[in-house]
Write a structure and sequence with these properties.
The protein has 140 residues and is an alpha+beta fold. It has one domain: Thiol Ester Dehydrase, Chain A (Roll). The chain is built from 3 helices and 5 strands, in the order βααββββα. The protein has helices at residues 30-45, 50-57, 133-139; strands spanning 8-14, 59-70, 79-89, 93-102, 110-122. A 5-stranded antiparallel beta sheet has the order 1-3-4-5-2, with helices on one face. A hairpin with a 7-residue loop joins strand 4 and strand 5. The longest helix is centred in the N-terminal third of the chain and has 16 residues, at 30-45.
Length: 140
């Protein structure tokens, strides 16, 4: 199933000391943290709070697959825009396309992009389950 219309969510972020390596460049794994924050805020913008969702449904999203490509480095104090956009909806998983962009170099400030597959699981057993219909409706 494909989303009706891809809407891309943007989350502003500044690079701090803790995000960089000894050379003052964002440590590669931190882009996954940036992507996680943007996905969480994207869901929140749709009225989906993950802790409440777990309490109400007994289910939760978990990351099952990532693919990340690095284009250019971000540095200390850079302002970024991190995006999240639904690319594909399945019965038990979603594929989210994400980018980290340099805010000062728009529109061609691509630093990093990737796709993240998040699966829906029963929180108690961690077994895959169907994404609840009301959640699918909120996402589309």
């Amino acid at each position: 199933m494909s989303p009706a219309a891809e809407q891309v969510f943007h989350w502003p972020l500044r690079v701090y000391w803790e995000d960089t390596d000894a050379g003052g460049i964002v440590f590669y794994a931190n882009y996954l943290k940036f992507f996680e924050r943007a996905r969480t805020e994207w869901l929140r913008s749709l009225g989906i709070e993950q802790q409440r969702l777990r309490e109400q449904t007994g289910g939760m999203f978990v990351v099952s697959e990532t693919s990340v490509r690095y284009h250019r480095p971000a540095r200390l104090d850079d302002e970024l825009l991190v995006t999240a956009g639904l690319q594909e909806i399945g019965r038990a998983s979603l594929i989210i396309g994400q980018q980290a962009l340099s805010k000062s170099e728009q529109p061609n400030g691509l630093l990093c992009d990737g796709t993240i597959r998040i699966g829906w699981v029963d929180a108690a057993t961690l077994r895959p389950a169907r994404i609840p219909n009301h959640l699918l409706e909120a996402l589309t």
